[in-house]
Amino acid sequence: MNALKNIEAIFLVAVAVAVAAVGGVTEKRPLQVAADNSVIAAAPAAPAAMDVVVVSAKRLSAAEKAALI
């Protein structure tokens, strides 16, 4: 049981070190917006109608089920 707890602790430490390493390597740059606001305003306001699928079938009787097997 103690071995499993130790493996879990080692894994968590490894994840913490990896996250810290990636955070230190990446450049901190300001976010740049490529599009102006007019493109966002031109988006459609109402979503399209949702498609509806209806599945209907009759239940098989015991004799019909036996015939299929």
Automatic annotation (TrEMBL):
Protein name: Uncharacterized protein
Domain of life: Bacteria
